[in-house]
Amino acid sequence: MxxxxxxxxLCGLFAVTALNYxxxxxxxxxxxxxxxxxxxxxxxxxxxxxxxxxSGVFTAGGCKRLDIPVLKTxxxxxxxxxxxxxxWGSANLTTDSxxxxxxxxxxxxxxxxxxxxxYGHDMGEEAxxxxxTVMLAPAFNICRNPxxxxxYEYYSEDPFLNxxxxxQSVQGIQSQHVAACVKHFAVNNQEINRGSVSVDISExxxxxxxxxAFKASIIExxxxxxxxxxxxxxxxxxxxxxxxxxxxxxxxxxxxxxVISDWGGVHSTVxxxxxGLDLEMGSNPPYNTYYxxxxxxxxxxxxxxxxxxxxxxxxxxxWVQLHTNMSQxxxxxxxxxxxxxQTAYAIAxxxxxxxxxxxxxxxxxxxxxxxIAVIGDNATRTFHLGGFGAGVKARYEITAxxxxxxxxxxxxxxxxxxxxTGDYKAHGQxxxxxxxxxxxxxxQAVATAKSTDVAILFIGGNRDFESxxxxxxxxxxxxxxxxxxxxxxxxxxxxxxxxxxxxxxxIGQIKKNNSTIVWSWYNGSENGxxxxxxxxxxxxxxxxxxxxxxxxxxxxxxxxxxxxxGENLKVDYKEGILVGYRWFDTKKIExxxxxxxxxxxxxxNYSDLATNQKSYKAxxxxxxxxxxxxxxxxxxxxxxxxxxxxxGSAVERADKELKAFTKVNIPAGETASVTLSIPVKDLxxxxxxxxxWVVEPGKYKLxxxxxxxxxxxxxxxxxx
Length: 720
Ligand code: BGC
Known about the structure:
The structure is a single chain. 30% of the residues lie in helices and 21% in strands. A six-stranded mixed β-sheet has the order 1-2-3-4-6-9. The chain has a six-stranded mixed β-sheet with strand order 10-17-16-14-11-12, with helices on both faces. It is built from 19 helices and 28 strands. The protein is α/β, with parallel strands linked by helices. Helix 3 crosses helix 12 (338-351), helix 5 packs parallel to helix 7 and helix 13 crosses helix 17. Bound molecules: beta-D-glucopyranose. The site of beta-D-glucopyranose has 6 residues, from loops.
């Protein structure tokens, strides 16, 4: 009885607090609306239009007369970009070096939303210190074809993992009163012809695969700005796409913030203004010639665009500014603090994926090993800059070689050989592996490997090779790396291959011939320290692949269906909803490494999958519990993945879809009880006839696994 009374009191208290919070929130919202109304009344039409287009490479608007500050944007997503002059040249400041955070697919490989929040939070703090209003991040277009040059910037091929990370990144950035700008809206899945290609896509694929992370980042993450993509959807540029911007984003999702164009991605005045774009950005002056400058003013004067519409855009900008650079209680920004370095380290160390460890060469037996050959250009290369597009002037970046020297340099003789040259000059829109093996460098590497106990090879891509505005020609390893790997492996059987990249590569031959393979990324300021700690076992690897590695590029859905990069500037997304593992699993094609794959120095045993009910209503939540035992000698973090499969559906279904995951820390020998929740409404498919989400009644299989192809436990539930 007593507990019941306490419970009532507690519920009452919660209700009162929630009410208080809601009314405080409404008051704050009302105050902001009143402020916006008062400013709008004072602004002239010219001043309002001045807020709607670029005034510099990264700046727009402002109104000195009314104390409205300039809206300052900056890239993202690798960290806060350095200050640039007109024409993109460096401003050559000494005050704008920043923390280099691991790239998007690295963050996704952590499968850890808490780290996504920390990433956003710390980058937001640095943006605040630089007085930036809008961070042009996070970027999370779906990895549709592994060749896409921006795969390294994006997260995943899976909409669920994508959405979980996007929401946290946004909330982290915005906790610092800096607006996130989620990009690129939408279906910017290739760089070839990105400025002109038109994507033909089914409504179902759009809703189920390509939009969920955007929707979640607006509705759950409350992102204050969004960037329209360069490409067209169904023949209409994204920057003037009524369906995408007005109907879906501002209508269905109730977006209150700013639609910002990608740089130079606007093609009209009246259509863009009417169809949802709010702010036109671009790189080059004269800025009064922009579509949203003098031409917009003329269009208003000619009655083609209403003042009401201009007011709506100015209001949106003021609304964002009142939450950011005009807000009352902006936190103090901080640049490159040790805490930010710790975040970069945490992400890097949880992102590294152990692909193969057949001979247990890892973790390195540092008490027996006297000498190590560190081989490869990627051991000494940094990744904060390179290629076309956003980078960071890193305050520091620890290379792989420096990391190993930091950890082992005092006790182990470390010898370095370059092995290959990773210099790369791009040509056109396609990057193909440039020069081949360098026999002199390989001979040196072989000699070094022969003279040491262990050889660690650092190969893969680099930031010049994987780049914005270009796709790769194929998945082959560049710079003659395969020949180097073969030669070094023949010279020293204790060879460990570390592949560094932000996207899938063809490492089939290495998988076949080599015993020990580690995958690493463009892993931020603490790259080398994190990598060394994984190699010596201070960190037990826990990264899992955020996308499928095809055994052959031709197996990838858009390649198999000849649906990339399109013809006559049109690309038909023929694979529909079957993107990534959804395709491979449904078509029963064996990949090289599947979605969600990643080993550990320990092993985990899954048991006792149970659900809280057998049968559910549409409004219920399916609570699944499962026991995971760490059966090895090392403590470790395991990402438990829960997929759902629907047999006998009225529509085409993927073999399975990720619907929940969680990462747990399990001490050696112990068992964790893991709980995973799936709201039944998340089982819905998008019905193109009714234009609505439909949960089909019937049986669903729950599949819990270590990866999409290593399902350890399963169960069945019924939806009424
Ligand atoms: C990219 C955007 C970026 C913008 C500004 C464009 O080329 O697509 O992602 O934010 O440039 O640098």
